[in-house]
Design brief:
Strands 4-3-2-1-5 form a 5-stranded antiparallel β-sheet, covered by helices on one side. It is built from 2 helices and 5 strands. Helices cover about 40% and strands about 30% of the residues. The protein has 2 domains: about 35 residues; about 70 residues, SH3 type barrels (Roll), CATH 2.30.30.100.
Length: about 120
C-alpha cells in the first residue's frame, strides 16, 4: 500500500509539472495573440527605422507625386508632398504615415542621372 501511494504521488507530481508547463505556454500564446498588432507595429518600425532603404531628406515619389522624406520616426514617417505646376512648386501638403502602413504606398526613389554616353558603341 505504501508503494502504491508513492507511485500515485509521483504520477500526480509529474502531471502537475506537465500541466504547469503547458499552462505557461498557453498564457504566453494568449498574450501573443492579444498583442499581435503591437508586435507587428514594432517589427515594422524596426525595419523602417533601422533599415537603409530610405533616409531623411530623400527625394521620392509617393503614389506618383513628388515629395521629400522629412522625418523617419520609430512609429511614423513624415513626407512633404509637393504640388508642381509648369515646373515650379506652387504648394504642397504634409503627409504623416504610420510605419506599418508604408507598405500600402507606392514609394519610388529616383536614381541619380547616369552618363550613358559610354554605352553608345
Amino acid at each position: 500500500m505504501n508503494e502504491t501511494n508513492t507511485i500515485i504521488d509521483i504520477v500526480q507530481s509529474n502531471i502537475q509539472n506537465t500541466i504547469g508547463h503547458y499552462v505557461w505556454l498557453f498564457i504566453i500564446g494568449v498574450i501573443g495573440l492579444i498583442f499581435k498588432s503591437s508586435i507587428e507595429k514594432f517589427v515594422c518600425a524596426l525595419f523602417v527605422f533601422f533599415g537603409h532603404d530610405y533616409k531623411e531628406d530623400d527625394v521620392v515619389y509617393v503614389n506618383g507625386a513628388p515629395g521629400r522624406i522629412v522625418r523617419i520616426g520609430f512609429i511614423k514617417t513624415t513626407f512633404f508632398i509637393y504640388e508642381v505646376k509648369d515646373g515650379k512648386v506652387i504648394g504642397g501638403k504634409k503627409l504623416v504615415v504610420q510605419n506599418e502602413q508604408l507598405k500600402n504606398l507606392n514609394i519610388e526613389k529616383p536614381l541619380d542621372n547616369l552618363d550613358l554616353t559610354k554605352f553608345n558603341k
